[in-house]
């Protein structure tokens, strides 16, 4: 039987934001201690101006220096922030993550390799960014994105990662509130996803009224069709314990590392300690002004440059 890992870090929706990705890698090395595995729930590219840099860093963390020479990572740092190069903190941190990464694809990753969503079209701003990204991707990174699966299940550990919903991942349905999913469409005890860029967590039960509780959603954003108990859950929490003693299932949206949309521009990530059965939401501050400037310099839509500054 597969051994049970202790600490998983989950991120999603990097969206070509290399400044946030670098800050995140340094942050987890400094604050999270030993990390057994990094899980990425899709959308490495799209919107941001550094798709190749983000892909190269992710490929290094997945495959190691066999596929991405460490010299390539040095070069990225020199290009991104020459005044602080060499960034020893980052280089030490990323080498700790070598071959610890599991990554799946998101709708932006697949759009740029000619595999769009089967249920919806991108809006003009997103499509413009996808077209630009496709034009600058290296052959290696194009191939990498094309080969990404759409979900990954860790059967013995009772969880899986998917970009949107596990029952129809290629549809990229937005799980904007708890009513989108139900108990029967969640196939694992815990499902981690992204796509909406807004962190949230929901608990589902076998009862006819499927939604039992939620966390991290302000009361004014609750769907009025849901149970009263959910609307009464007014306190936002940053950590909760998974109940392994009943039949509940959990859907956890880890938010976005590279383009948050919950009003907070800091990048999001989640820590899942599978020994303590604890899930914790974290934020990491990064140089959003630099990320915005790169978008402007790349002549991508100005709306994208503003979003990273405001977290909307």
TrEMBL record:
Ranges where the Calcineurin-like phosphoesterase domain occurs: 9-199
Molecular function as annotated in GO: phosphatase activity
One GO cellular component, as annotated: cytoplasm
CDD domains according to UniProt: MPP_superfamily
Leader sequence residues: none
PANTHER family named among the record's database cross-references: BLL5683 PROTEIN, METALLOPHOSPHOESTERASE
Official protein name in the record: Calcineurin-like phosphoesterase domain-containing protein
Annotated source species: Kuenenia stuttgartiensis
Lineage: Bacteria, Pseudomonadati, Planctomycetota, Candidatus Brocadiia, Candidatus Brocadiales
């Amino acid at each position: 039987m597969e051994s049970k890992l202790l600490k998983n870090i989950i991120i999603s929706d990097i969206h070509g934001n290399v400044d946030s990705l670098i800050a995140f890698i340094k942050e987890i090395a400094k604050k999270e201690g030993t990390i057994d595995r990094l899980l990425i729930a899709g959308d490495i590219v799209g919107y941001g101006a550094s798709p190749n840099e983000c892909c190269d860093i992710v490929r290094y963390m997945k495959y190691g220096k066999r596929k991405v020479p460490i010299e390539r990572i040095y070069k990225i740092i020199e290009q991104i922030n020459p005044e602080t190069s060499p960034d020893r903190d980052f280089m030490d941190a990323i080498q700790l993550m070598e071959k610890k990464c599991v990554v799946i694809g998101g709708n932006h990753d697949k759009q740029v390799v000619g595999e769009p969503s089967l249920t919806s079209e991108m809006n003009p701003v997103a499509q413009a960014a996808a077209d630009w990204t496709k034009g600058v991707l290296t052959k290696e990174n194009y191939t990498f994105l094309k080969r990404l699966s759409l979900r990954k299940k860790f059967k013995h550990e009772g969880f899986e990662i998917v970009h949107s919903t596990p029952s129809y991942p290629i549809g990229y349905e937005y799980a904007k509130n708890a009513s989108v999913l139900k108990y029967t469409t969640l196939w694992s005890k815990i499902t981690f996803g992204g796509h909406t860029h807004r962190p949230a967590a929901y608990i589902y039960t076998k009862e006819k009224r499927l939604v039992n509780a939620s966390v991290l959603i302000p009361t004014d954003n609750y769907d009025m069709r849901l149970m009263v108990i959910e609307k009464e859950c007014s306190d936002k929490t940053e950590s909760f314990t998974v109940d392994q003693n009943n039949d509940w299932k959990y859907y956890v949206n880890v938010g976005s590392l590279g383009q948050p949309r919950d009003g907070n521009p800091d990048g999001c990530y989640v820590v899942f300690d599978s020994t303590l059965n604890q899930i914790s939401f974290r934020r990491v501050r990064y140089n959003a002004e630099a990320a915005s400037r790169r978008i402007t310099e790349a002549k991508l839509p100005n709306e994208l440059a503003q979003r990273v500054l405001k977290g909307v």
